[in-house]
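Sample intake sheet
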Amino acid sequence: MKKRALAIVLSVFMAACMTACGDSSSASESKKDETPKADRETIYQVSLLQGLTLGDYNGSVSVKELKQKGDTGIGTFEGVNGELIMVDGTVYRAKSDGSIETAPDDETIPFANVTFFDTDEKQDISGVSSIADLKKLLDEKVEKLGRNQFYMVRVDGTFKKMHARSELKQEKPYKPLAEALKTDQREFSWDNIEGTVVALYCPQYMEDLNAAGWHLHFVSKDKKYGGHVLELDVDKAELKIDCTQGFNMQLPDTEMFPTLDLTKDQSEDIKKVETKD
């Protein structure tokens, strides 16, 4: 008999980060009373990215359940049926043609990272002409605040260029993700578009559970376009950073997961699915 989904909780509370991004009343927006503080300071993850890259696209958590764990985040849907972007509590799907739809509550999710977003730092930015430049700027923030914490970031503004991807829904038997994207990835670009980039940072020690570093998704302001960000050019935007000290991962109760070889080095495959190279 299958066991119910397990939960692994890793808390990495550190005094330095609490000082830098948890206790500053001038830097932090007030917490919402309706959600316990402990929940707001946790990155909630569904499964492992490594499970997804091996081809376990079976959903284990519903959209409705995911919205109870956060209001901001990224991920994908069962069968990797599009890119998931959660903004302000709504879960959007960037479809294989780059268009956006609101995901139904009963849709299931094989992989995602979400949190309740609270701004710990913010600044206006302009003239950030590439994704490499944006990551450099974000890395400088991480160095200052603490590289061993988790960060969820929002970049709200106008982009001179946004280049993104999504993918066709996969059918069983599922292929590894890098193999599926060779034929089924679809890319699209938009000029002078307003919207929101949601970015997740995972520390280096997370490389066996997720992709260490930055992972970015985009949804346009009018909720018509979006996807996994491959390249961008920021015109003017507001950058908001949520420093988060808690991590909670729920392992999936799927047919594939118990037998996956998660000891395999997937660093090259993860690099392929995360970038345009």
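Comment: The radius of gyration is 18 Å. Residues 1-19, 24-32 have pLDDT under 50 and may be disordered.
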